[in-house]
Model the fold of this input.
Amino acid sequence: MQTDLLQEARRQAEICNACRYCEGYCSVFPALHRERAFSDGDLTQLANLCHNCRGCYYACQYTAPHEFDLNLPKALAEVRRDSWESFAWPGPFARAFQTHGLRIAAFSVLGFAVLFWAIRAIGSAGGEGFYAALSHNAMVAIFAPAFLFPLLSLAISLRAYWTSVGGGSVRLSHITAALGSAAKMKNLAAGHGDGCNFEDEDRFSHARRHVHQAVMYGFLLCFASTSAGTVMHYAFGMQAPYSFFSLPKLLGVPGGILLTAGTIGMAVLKTKADKNLADVKAWGAEMAFILLLGFVAFSGLVLYALGGTAAMPLLLALHLGAVLSFFLLTPYSKMAHGFYRLAALIREEQNRQPAPATRPKQHRA
Done:
């Protein structure tokens, strides 16, 4: 990891540790105030706990033009992005996406769409619905490896992160508490519960929390829809296309709507927010991820609405190109932050819930 980014984050953390004005703002400050000195692993953990709500910056008396020139949200955002690049596997892909994210996402979607359009004849005989354009076997052969690769990549990356932050053995209580915090987006409400200042210095808002929840729950519903269709196909012999009142559609359509609305809201909020309170270098890559995820959801809804028309093969190629791009880019895009954030929350629960003391063995005389 870059030493200069860690040194600047360390300088600011030490000043914040002495001040303690923001102690109740979010999970970062209780974790920060537990330490007297900050190792690289401590700073990496703090950076991945931070949700960049910016409340601490607007409340701080030591921001520019003060000589301390504190900007903790920016310092932690830069360490956070650097940690993802350092731990990502293979590493060069992460650095390339952070630098050229929008172009990579756009070209990969179009490239894969052209590929799917070119091979659509594989399933053109005897298939129904989407399988008339691309056979089920072809879809499985393409998407199974594309789904498994990000899982392998993220597992390797998170193992490196866990080692870096000194994570130990995990108890069920650590996981349940972390999942509860993530489900409620607790840290985006700030310690006082009024929301954060992400879009505006003088106004507290829950807007960012709500759009994050829409994205998260929309994605989970879409994933559940795909899982339900897989089970129905292989376990019960019920093959697509499915009716609107089938489980895949009842899960997938609301999920797609939530995901589309959430990504639109997230993109709008990012354009309103001050770029100088985040990692400026990562802005383009983050926006590329948001647009890619939104296009996956929106193209899926359009494909469902127009699946019975002559436009279906082209729409299917675009949608599958977007989905395949999303899978392959997940370990290097902002999507990875959800996994790192959950790992950071679990690590924080380890610190908050110390292991029970073991009683010394009693030796009989």
